[in-house]
Amino acid sequence: MTIQHRPANLPHEPEFEQAYNELVSTLENSTLFQKHPEYRTALKVVSIPERVIQFRVVWEDDKGELQVNRGYRVQFNSALGPYKGGLRLHPTVNLSILKFLGFEQIFKNALTGLMMGGGKGGADFDPKGKSDSEIRRFCVAFMRELSRYIGANTDVPAGDIGVSGREIGYMFGTYRKERNLFEGVLTGKGLTWGGSLIRPEATGYGLVYYVGHMLQYAGAGDWKGKRVAISGSGNVAQYAALKCIELGATVLSLSDSQGCLVAEEGQSITPEDVNSIAEIKERRQALTTFQHGGRLRYINGARPWLHVGKVDVVLPSATQNEVSKEEAEGLIAAGARFIAEGSNMGCTLEAIEVFEAHRKANKKQAIWYAPGKAANCGGVAVSGLEMGQNSQRLAWTAEEVDQRLQDIMKNAFTNGLETAKKFVDTDADELPSLVAGSNIAGFIKVAEAMRDQGDWWTL
């Protein structure tokens, strides 16, 4: 595996280095650098952020005591448009995680076909256990500092883990007052003040639309009758589950950081279950509080992958590195044919290697893996559509946004598929590598834009 040269004076950044190595390994194992050796220069440039902003966030809790957190914004690449990527509020947030997310965001945004660069930000603030007033005071303090560096044509953040419509509202209001501007500076806004229909559903819906093209290309039909394992219980997992059920699939699992819910034999997760779980998560409570009447089984401290039994489609939709090598092997043994990441970097490198080796060895009967930068790009795609609506001072119908989302996901799938056929040696009866094709397609688009703008060059 190719490892980025890291000067001795820089700290180890495991999440970022994993994301970098996953991209580089697919570029190296293709014919891209043979056909275009000059792209090695582009790789050196694109792997370093254009700008990293770090600041302190000082706020007051309900007891009147001072609290302080670290805030960040990684403005990674603007060759294709304003920096675009979410804000994450979670105690695990650090620079390595945000660089990994920002690096992935560059190529994900490129695959949408929209004019968006890549960035990511957030803070090591934990919203769990905080009152609404404490969350509001934190968001105000955070945006007072961040507002210096963002704007509708510069950097347009969105939500991520710990940042939903409530937090976006507090931050947007602070930006408006601090800068005396009402503009499309954040996405995921309320529908009455610049938000877009289908934005909350977009990542989950887009994931299901993307996998629908995988099913069709592989000759597996449509979603009807498919047994689906999903992790997570936030926005992505909820709407992916609802869309799967709508299209005739059987959803077997959901999860959170404490454990997983798995359907008992002959049972499944219903839309009513998903709606109840959404209410629980809105109150920031654990899945242990969900009353399922014995139809589901709660497994403490476990992910669902080795507990769902026979499965056709796997949708990791919680967080990074949630499918290990052993779990990848277990999913294949359980009959899984398709796995697509609703989360960012949901599978470890070792798990991806298992999936790719199985794809090579078992041809069209293999498991087929799709990376998050392609499969979950629907969320940022509709954020881009929200930016377009804001620029026009218009609001599109849900049907129009949903159709545009479907078109974007189809194009992302086709782009990755055709690029894999062009740059990766593939047997006639073998499913093309979507991870290689998506990485290469996104990389080429960004590299060419950077070259045209003078960000890199060769003699």
UniProtKB/TrEMBL annotation:
Matches recorded under Gene3D superfamilies: Glutamate Dehydrogenase, chain A, domain 3, Leucine Dehydrogenase, chain A, domain 1, NAD(P)-binding Rossmann-like Domain
All residue ranges annotated as the Glutamate/phenylalanine/leucine/valine/L-tryptophan dehydrogenase C-terminal domain in the record: 196-454
Catalytic activity: L-glutamate + NADP(+) + H2O = 2-oxoglutarate + NH4(+) + NADPH + H(+)
Keyword Oxidoreductase (UniProt): yes
Keyword Oxidoreductase found: yes
Keywords of the record: Oxidoreductase
Subunit text: Homohexamer.
Family statement: Belongs to the Glu/Leu/Phe/Val dehydrogenases family.
Descriptive protein name: Glutamate dehydrogenase
Biological source species: Phialemonium thermophilum
